[in-house]
Amino acid sequence: MSKRTISCDERDTLFARLRLIAGTREYLEYYHRHPERQEADDALRECGGLARLGTAGGWTIDQIKEMTARPTGRIITTLVRVLPPVRDTVSRRAAKRISRITDRLPIEPRIQALLDDSTRTIEDYAEADRRRTPAAHQVDIPPGRMSAVVKEASKFYGASLVGITRMENDLSYTHRSNGEPVSRSFAYSIVYAVEMPRELINRAPHRETLLATCNGYVDAARVGARLSGFIKSLGYKTSLNSMVKYDVPLVPLAERAGLGQRGRCHFIVTKEYGNRVRLGAVLTNLPLEADDPSDFGLHEFCRLCGKCATNCPGKAISLERTGQHEDGPAWTFDEIRCMRMWIEYATDCAICIASCPFTQGVSAEQIAAMKNRPGIMKDILREDRVRHGDRAFIQKEAPIVNWTASNRTSSLSNHLSNDQTD
Ligand code: SF4
Ligand code: SF4
What we know:
single chain; 8 strands; about 10% strand; binds iron/sulfur cluster; disordered C terminus; two-stranded antiparallel ribbon; NADH Oxidase; alpha+beta
């Protein structure tokens, strides 16, 4: 039985790797250390990489292939390794080339207009948090009471779920994606989830899923910045983990804080929203009480279900389990195959999210009763299949992007009121 491995260096995550620009010092250094990853990562870069997502599909794969950097030749590569001035020139030129390309981007205006402010807004929250210093006086409230207050505050700021875990070294990155070492000086992590709208996720893999996920990142950043501000007002330092900067890998952290269990899909599956959530965390030394992980029987359920794997267009999630971890069965997840689909669709796909019965809603009574009871699990699966077939899917464009509707104002307000009553 193996221990589940947690990636401890953010530079190893696929997102961090795909941000590397061919020919730069960072690129060469990384693949010098990890030559086994270069070929597959280069292939993703060559078919558009993160640019396809960043432009919501405004660029075709062929356009990107034409315009993006060609891999540097062997002589240049060697010179870059040994001569710092050559290295700097290559880095400068590559960065310029990328910004020229970005300037020429066409965009898919409706989606892009709705997303344009997301990154900037998340950065603004992070910057406001950086500027804020803890109050001089530290409040002294018993950890049990303080934990309840912190959870209440998180929900007040917009979190759908929240839990607390003690920080262990294996739950922290050693380095961030930009190479900065991470200081491991916090004792607790408050981990929270924000819900993504089901009606947008159920349009996966259409463009609307990008609206759901980007909005989720903004919501998570807002909740974290406000929670961090609250804890600083109590006199304690914090580290905000939102899209700008991560000190910790969020999925294992959320699992230990009891938000849900990691499913066959490789992501956290919560009882309340399935994997239809985005995560965030605030690290702190404010004395708190940690929650226990929650085992509601998901691993056994995933063994019977497998809907995420059978629906996955990239065959990224294994159909058969490949072993046993100490905390449950092991299925493999192939991040390269998954990213290939993201690039092809120019969205973050999300079919596995829409496929999960817990995403669509399972009653609290059935969830409470299902552990070690395969009969109840089969009932849940049968009901899910009657309601959603192989998977939930809404073909029709969402009102929020359907600007050609004759009455645009009422279409948008309908969308908003549907949201409120959902
Ligand atoms: S996001 Fe799409 S390609 Fe990736 S694992 Fe889920 S279903 Fe498969
Ligand atoms: S779709 Fe089924 S197998 Fe996949 S994570 Fe959800 S419950 Fe588990």
